[in-house]
Design goal:
With 140 residues, this protein is an all-alpha fold. It is elongated, with a radius of gyration of 20 Å.
Length: 140
């Protein structure tokens, strides 16, 4: 039973943390604006939050996106990222300013793929190269 409890710690955090009392199924909605409005409403009503309503709403949305990780379908992640933008709009906030040296300087994913220093052929050869390296290590 302990393994099952550890496995679902993020669900426990979502339900019991001092962040927000969320509407049921808020993250499964299809409309980004609806998600953002619900988060804003929950943040403004909540008395359990420790920071401002904008920070609480944004952190809960970010927490959900980060915990879903690679299991979150691309279409769903797009909707949630759009909900983040809607949340910024609802609170009258601009795009977040990134500190120097943070990931903010990184190119967008599509631009990075286009201007990647590795050619398509080099990316295809990489798995074979890793396999040869593993085989050489086993011989030692």
């Amino acid at each position: 039973m302990a393994a099952r409890t550890r496995k679902r710690w993020s669900q426990h955090v979502t339900q019991t943390s001092d962040a927000l009392t969320l509407d049921q199924g808020v993250f499964s909605r299809d409309d980004p604006r609806s998600i953002a409005r619900s988060l804003k409403r929950s943040a403004e009503r909540s008395r359990r939050r420790k920071s401002g309503s904008y920070a609480s709403a944004m952190s809960m949305l970010t927490f959900y996106i980060n915990r879903a990780g690679r299991h979150l379908p691309a279409s769903r992640k797009r909707k949630l990222l759009q909900a983040k933008q809607e949340l910024r709009n609802l609170y009258g906030k601009d795009e977040p300013v990134k500190a120097a040296g943070s990931r903010g300087r990184r190119k967008s994913l599509s631009v990075a793929r286009e201007s990647s220093s590795k050619s398509a052929a080099a990316r295809r050869r990489a798995p074979a190269r890793r396999a040869r390296t593993r085989a050489a290590r086993k011989k030692r």
